[in-house]
Design goal:
The protein is an all-alpha fold. It is built from 9 helices and no strands. Helix 7 runs antiparallel to helix 8.
């Protein structure tokens, strides 16, 4: 309750440079599929995507650190459920795939203040707790996205550059269309 009242004083109401860069990279990577993050494995995670994206967006909207952490926990519950399903090629996600699945859904959610929210929540999470582990994984995902390469996504440099530019142009066009209506 107190945190909600002082939220605007302690939480930035604008995107940091890292938030802007991360958001732009997510826009540019919107063409990706799970197999790009999973070394060619094809997992069917479409049924989980709406819930995961919804929880990412709720973290963005929520002021209470406790509620932000609850939504973060819900994301990881969904990610763990994804692990229990076989992919279309018979492959099953393993523990090593959690970060890659999380990176994929982070890109799809396109949080506008992903980095700032992680930094904010660090003040409210006990060291060596489950929530601390979740934040660490989200930090790893941020670093992965900030330093993504064509090789990490299993595509050629030409495919990577072309797909990223096309996705970003589509995003810019959607902004133009939205502003006209």
């Amino acid at each position: 309750m107190i945190c909600e009242k002082i939220y605007d004083k302690i939480f930035p109401t604008f995107q940091s440079d890292n938030d802007s860069k991360l958001y732009t990279l997510c826009q540019r990577l919107s063409w990706t599929e799970p197999k790009n993050f999973l070394g060619g494995k094809t997992l069917s995670i479409d049924s989980f995507l709406p819930d995961i994206i919804s929880n990412f967006l709720k973290i963005e909207e929520e002021k209470s650190p406790r509620k932000k952490i609850e939504f973060m926990r819900a994301i990881f519950v969904c990610i763990n459920q994804v692990q229990n399903f076989n992919g279309t090629d018979g492959n099953k996600a393993g523990v090593d795939d959690i970060i890659n699945i999380l990176a994929y859904v982070f890109v799809k959610a396109q949080p506008t203040m992903g980095n700032t929210n992680i930094e904010y929540l660090k003040f409210f999470v006990k060291t060596n707790s489950e929530e601390d582990h979740f934040l660490t994984q989200l930090n790893v995902v941020n670093e992965f996205i900030m330093n993504v390469t064509p090789e990490k996504l299993q595509v050629t440099k030409e495919e990577f550059d072309e797909n990223c530019q096309k996705a970003f142009n589509e995003f810019l066009n959607s902004l133009i269309i939205t502003s006209k209506t």
